[in-house]
From TrEMBL:
Transmembrane segments: 131-152, 186-206
The species this protein was found in: Profundicola chukchiensis
Residues forming coiled coils: none
Protein name per its UniProtKB record: C-type cytochrome
Domain of life: Bacteria
Length: 421
């Protein structure tokens, strides 16, 4: 053991804050008393000290960035990584030293379990926000049946008169004329209304082309971002791992789900969306196994896979070029500060970590892209831009003065060819 490395009992911290942080960042993969995706963490500081002769500094380094620690050739770090089938634990560089100590302190000094149990959420059905469309359809149906009924009436009357040899008796003629007059107006009114409705629908459709804000299709598995990214604090890029590297963010394959759901076979979380239940969530988890060809009772794979067919929500037309890496890596800091969001993804996709189901948070039109390019200052100091825009930057400085704020439009963000093939 390193001589300066402090012993386990040298850590002091705030157990309550440690618990909150643990639940937010670690509970997806660790429990205190048993193995989950990673080892049990109850009393981990003492255990590592007794069994491995490792002090608290090792733990701090591991939690901060285990990849770096492994890369430095640390023996135990590599050993435990192999022991856990090289499942990668996320780095937690965003946590401060004190926060990490709070977590460690909590794992050694967990507060006594509380008795409270949350009442199950009432099983009311979710509020239906498709009312306008539903109301339109019902109105339409009522009008249509009215019309059919009128036609039917008129037809019967006409038939009746024909049957009687074309000679209308005065009384009948009167009543027919009356009836016809009476219903004719209703019929005209009905037809007028229908025409209006059709025109309104067509107009809505036309202004709505390409604008899908709010689009939220039903998915083959009820996958909750609020539970994964919000409650469990799993990093967006753990699942959408190509956002950093290229054009698309990608949807995770079933293998990624199995990293965790190999073990997590049922839902035991506190958060339950209105109208859902723990049993419902557990059933949804079982659908992953059907897709992966996995038998959770004996943890074996049959080899018969059936990929989950997620319904795509965001989809630009083919003639548009949009690149995630450009916005997440090069533009990331600039966008975060311009929009005041914690994670760059939220600037365009909204607060996904609070959505039970993802829906389109913006209209994703050309105007929307351009508006942001006009407003957002380019971060000329980051690695990427320093390299790519070195020459341009000099030119821009001459053109606008060295103190001027350079927004995306100045580096070509309004040029047709940049966004269109
Ligand atoms: C995505 C899953 C995941 C998350 C989230 C995660 N870990 Fe881990 N952790 C692991 C895995 C898996 C291992 C086993 C080593 C390996 O495979 O890298 C591990 C190992 C560890 C170890 C070494 C334990 C030992 O017995 O050697 C510690 C300490 C640890 N994690 C702490 C944390 C803390 C603290 C957090 C939250 C801030 C956290 N982990 C979040 C997956 C995770
Ligand atoms: C545990 C894995 C996981 C994590 C973590 C995760 N996602 Fe997802 N994401 C998915 C899956 C699976 C889908 C496809 C199903 C759906 O649309 O809900 C998806 C869909 C999406 C979509 C819609 C894609 C489309 O079809 O257009 C967006 C946007 C998105 N995620 C953003 C995020 C953001 C932002 C975060 C972080 C706050 C995040 N995701 C965290 C798994 C994950
Ligand atoms: C990093 C770990 C991790 C990954 C990866 C992961 N999950 Fe989960 N998942 C969890 C945890 C933790 C819970 C909550 C369990 C609890 O609280 O009892 C959960 C809950 C669920 C639930 C029930 C709640 C809900 O969202 O409806 C479903 C369904 C689910 N996961 C599907 C998936 C699918 C599909 C994937 C792959 C696209 C996936 N998960 C990837 C950790 C993970
Ligand atoms: C500048 C706005 C912007 C930012 C920032 C952004 N996205 Fe996107 N995202 C888009 C657009 C536009 C699309 C549609 C792309 C297409 O259809 O080609 C999209 C599509 C997606 C999709 C669907 C699959 C795909 O790649 O086409 C996922 C998943 C996604 N984004 C996740 C993320 C995550 C996670 C982050 C943060 C790391 C993020 N996005 C940041 C604008 C953004
Ligand atoms: C939230 C703000 C924001 C939105 C919305 C946005 N962008 Fe950008 N975009 C940026 C920033 C910031 C940069 C500069 C990145 C850098 O520093 O290189 C950029 C750069 C670009 C570039 C490179 C420009 C060049 O000169 O090389 C293209 C292409 C681009 N965006 C396309 C799009 C498209 C297409 C959309 C809409 C689907 C879009 N962007 C929406 C902020 C945004
Ligand atoms: C910052 C990126 C960006 C720039 C710059 C840009 N466009 Fe677009 N453009 C888009 C996006 C995104 C769409 C798709 C909008 C949709 O699907 O709603 C689009 C759609 C279009 C359309 C199809 C009609 C429509 O509105 O849906 C035309 C035509 C078009 N652009 C022409 C141009 C021309 C001409 C220029 C140069 C003056 C230009 N665009 C510059 C992003 C851009």
């Amino acid at each position: 053991m390193n001589a300066q490395d402090a012993p386990a009992d040298a850590v002091s911290g705030d157990a309550a804050n440690g618990e909150a942080l643990f639940n937010q960042h670690c509970a997806a993969c660790h429990k205190l008393d048993s193995k989950l995706i990673g080892p049990a963490l109850g009393g981990v500081a003492e255990r590592l000290q007794d069994e491995q002769g490792l002090g608290v500094d090792w733990l701090r380094k591991w939690i901060k960035n285990n990849e770096e620690l492994r890369a430095s050739g640390d023996e135990y770090a590599n050993q435990v990584f192999e022991e856990y089938n090289e499942v990668v634990m996320l780095p937690f560089e965003q946590l401060s030293d004190q926060e990490i100590d709070d977590i460690i302190y909590f794992t050694s000094n967990p507060p006594a379990p509380k008795e409270e149990k949350k009442a199950a959420a009432p099983a009311t059905s979710a509020t239906d926000n498709s009312l306008p469309l539903g109301a339109l359809l019902i109105g339409f149906a009522v009008l249509a049946s009215l019309l059919v009924w009128i036609l039917f009436r008129v037809n019967t009357l006409v038939n009746l008169t024909k049957q009687e040899g074309g000679a209308l008796e005065t009384e009948q003629a009167e009543s027919f004329a009356e009836t016809f007059e009476k219903y004719k107006n209703v019929a005209y009114a009905g037809m007028g209304l229908i025409t209006l409705l059709v025109l309104y629908g067509a107009w809505q459709f036309m202004i709505g082309i390409g604008v899908d804000k709010g689009y939220q299709p039903e998915q083959p598995i009820y996958f909750s971002h609020k539970i994964h990214a919000g409650e469990q604090g799993i990093d967006c890029q753990y699942c959408h791992s190509s956002a950093k590297y290229g054009k698309v963010s990608g949807i995770p394959s079933t293998n990624v789900c199995m990293n965790c759901h190999y073990q997590i076979q049922e839902y035991t979380g506190d958060y339950i969306e209105e109208g859902k239940s723990a049993e419902f969530y557990t059933e949804e988890i079982q659908k992953i196994y059907a897709s992966a060809g996995f038998d959770p009772s004996n943890l074996t794979y049959s080899g018969e896979e059936d990929p989950i067919e997620w319904v795509r929500i965001h989809n630009m037309p083919d003639f548009v070029y949009f690149n995630h890496a450009q916005h997440v890596v090069a533009g990331g800091e600039a966008i975060k500060s311009a929009k005041g969001v914690e994670q760059v993804c939220f600037a365009c996709h909204g607060q996904v970590d609070e959505m039970d189901e993802v829906k389109m948070a913006n209209d994703f039109t050309m105007g929307w892209c351009i508006e942001c390019h006009r407003e957002t200052k380019v971060d000329m100091e980051n690695e990427y831009n320093k390299e790519y825009y070195a020459q341009l930057h000099e030119k821009l400085k001459k053109q606008y003065g060295s103190e001027a704020e350079i927004t995306v439009d100045a580096i070509g963000g309004l040029e047709c060819g940049k966004c269109h093939y």
